[in-house]
Amino acid sequence: MSDMTLLRIGIAVAMSLLLGAIIFFGRSRKDGQGRRVPRESARDAADRAEPSLGEQLADSWGDAEVEQEELPLATGAPQSELGRRPGEQFDRIISLYVAAKAGNKLRGSDIVVAAEKAGLTFGYMDVFHRLVDGRPEAGPIFSVANIIKPGSFDMARIAEVETPAIAFFLTLPAPLPALNAWETMEPAAQRMADLLDGVVLDEERSALGRQRIQHIRDELRAYDRQNAAPPLGKTSRW
């Protein structure tokens, strides 16, 4: 087995463990984690299916807190397809977090109200999604999960839910251009933080400042340019 094959297998296994940038949230920067997912080749992305939320948030804020706060998934009810991505492949994830202030927790019932006010819909995988107006079948612009495993919100016990933070994740390609999707997610995170008396953090658990926002915008502009369809009448020499 070649080194390249081993590398691809390693990437696929690693990415299957956690959903997007949530995997980096509770880990030390000394280990080189808590960073954005690097771009991969088109072949690598095609070989990798989008990981499910499932039980993949165990390390979000530390095992002790997760074990204390974990709530079981509701069983027996059919899962909603609203907010499901039409395709399983993705090549990048952008994440944000809304965290409770020191000594506080975000309460489930407050999260539901804030999500509704921010234009989110509860659906697929028992998490919240921001859908395209008039085109819900296009999939989510972004989604919002609990950082406590299994990541979902049990509506049957939502009044009992308490969590230190919720995770916003934008999976690319999205049903909108990447920059437009970001311009939808970031204000929604700010809105929910205001409603929940929380703070917005970037993927490295730092306060989301203007410089970081501008850097993300520049990256997503570049992503859109690289993934734009060629003008009509022009074809690649290849």
TrEMBL record:
One of its GO terms (cellular component) is cell division site. It comes from the Bacteria. Keywords: Cell cycle, Cell division, Cell inner membrane, Cell membrane, Membrane, Transmembrane, Transmembrane helix. It is found in: Cell inner membrane. Residues 31-58 are annotated as: Disordered. Residues 90-220 form the ZipA C-terminal FtsZ-binding domain. Its main location: membrane. It holds the Pfam family ZipA_C. The chain crosses the membrane at residues 6-26. Essential cell division protein that stabilizes the FtsZ protofilaments by cross-linking them and that serves as a cytoplasmic membrane anchor for the Z ring. Also required for the recruitment to the septal ring of downstream cell division proteins. Belongs to the ZipA family. NCBIfam families: septum_zipA. This is Cell division protein ZipA. It comes from Thermomonas fusca. The lineage of its organism: Bacteria, Pseudomonadati, Pseudomonadota, Gammaproteobacteria, Lysobacterales. The gene is zipA.
